[in-house]
Design brief:
The protein folds into 3 domains: 59 residues; 164 residues, Ribosomal Protein S5, domain 2 (2-Layer Sandwich); 88 residues, PDZ domain (Pdz3 Domain, Roll), CATH 2.30.42. It contains 11 helices and 20 strands. The strands form 6 sheets. Strands 4-1-3-16-19-20 form a 6-stranded mixed sheet. Helix 5 runs parallel beside helix 8.
């Protein structure tokens, strides 16, 4: 309030103690009430001005948080184009889900903390060591890879031949406190295991599966910073979900992954990034290439990554995606099994089912008249030259 003091009306010579009529009965004493009203008005106006300034500032000043809000639920069918093969527009929809991610202002953070449909998370959880632009570009790359893998898995499940090539298994992450953490680093590329070349990440997984916990694998590794590959020996550890099976303790993807498809399938994902629509795109491509509805004519939403073996992986923002799906009027929501509890917590009357593989998803869809009811076990399919 001190900043507003100079704007207050200055007292006249007869105002104040000892001024004006000594008995307070004259004209000066009669003007005290309007003067007090003016003072209260200025004080009240100053408080309002400060509150407005604080509100504007909170709406503009960024804080080190992101808000995760319910995003869109979009039908995949209009996004898929097929050239060189018959395609179908079936009843029902396979919807993919998104999360609205925004860097928060102070006001948005406060509103988010009060909204049960919104999560407010530290920016480090979203960006890590990346800038926001680097994170965006990484998410777009993941979406591109996801669409390619989804198309390949869909075609293979329908019996088409898809040739896959790559140049080694790129290390994406390493489990702490494992022998691998001492020998491997993100960005390293494993190009051979047990003396056999590794072109695809799945080939590394298959090589690990031939070992027992405690076995030592010899890996030929090209360092992330470049240079010639060299051999490293890494002891395998028990899997957390099955101690009788071995794991290396790394997550990987295929370097320079490429597919050769028998015909052209294009998926227009727009500006959406990330790999979490993998399952949705896989089912949607299958629906597009099948004369009967894979959803049984129902509105079905899904979330989950897909790998080249048809395995469904966990995603982020299941809380917000479930809220969005519930609001969309979908009859069924397919989610990775590890995120089932979170999804059902916010589902209300929405039916939510867990899936770990593409075949799991097809079996669930069979319960509503689609899935394996209309898509049988894969048989070889040939295409014209």
């Amino acid at each position: 309030m001190d900043t507003l003091e100079p704007t207050l009306p200055q007292p006249s010579p007869g105002d104040g103690p000892g001024g004006g009529d000594p008995d307070g009965d004259g004209p000066t004493g009669g003007e005290s009430t309007p003067r007090k009203r003016r003072l209260r008005w200025w004080i009240g106006g100053g408080v309002v001005a400060l509150l407005v300034a604080a509100l504007i500032t909170s709406a503009l000043v960024r804080v080190p948080y992101f808000t995760l809000s319910p995003g869109s639920v979009r039908d995949t069918q209009p996004l898929i184009q097929v050239e060189g093969h018959p395609s179908y527009d079936n009843e029902g929809t396979v919807d993919f889900t998104t999360v609205s991610l925004q860097r928060a202002t102070a006001l948005q953070a406060v509103i988010g903390w009060l909204d049960p449909a919104v999560d407010v998370v530290d920016e480090d959880q979203i960006l890590g060591n990346q800038t926001q632009e680097q994170s965006r570009q990484e998410n777009l790359r993941e979406m591109t890879d996801s669409k390619e893998i989804a198309t390949a898995v869909a075609l293979q499940r329908l019996g088409y031949e898809v040739k896959t090539t790559g140049n080694g298994a790129v290390v994406l992450g390493v489990v702490p406190d494992t022998p691998a953490a001492q020998a491997l680093h993100p960005g390293d590329v494993i190009v051979a295991a047990d003396g056999k070349p590794i072109a695809l990440a799945d080939e590394l997984v298959a090589a690990i599966a031939t070992h027992q916990p405690g076995d030592v694998m010899v890996l030929r590794v090209q360092p992330a910073e470049g240079g010639e590959p060299s051999d490293v020996s890494v002891a395998l550890v028990p899997r957390t979900d099955d101690p009788n099976r071995a794991m290396l303790g790394v997550s990987t993807s295929t370097r320079d992954l490429k597919f050769e498809f028998p015909f052209t399938v294009t998926i227009d994902s727009g500006a959406v990034g990330g790999p979490s629509a993998g399952l949705a795109f896989t089912l949607a491509v299958m629906d597009k290439l099948t004369s009967a509805s894979i959803t049984g004519g129902n509105k079905v939403a899904t979330t989950g990554t897909i790998d080249s073996q048809g395995r469904v992986g966990p995603v982020g923002g299941v809380h917000q995606k479930t809220v969005a799906v519930r609001r969309s009027g979908a009859q069924l929501f397919l989610v990775p099994s590890s995120e089932l509890d979170e999804a059902r917590k916010y589902a209300g009357d929405l039916r939510v089912e867990p899936v770990d593989t593409l075949d799991d998803a097809l079996r669930v869809l069979a319960t509503v008249g689609g899935g394996t009811e209309v898509i049988t076990a894969p048989t070889p399919v040939t295409t014209g030259n």
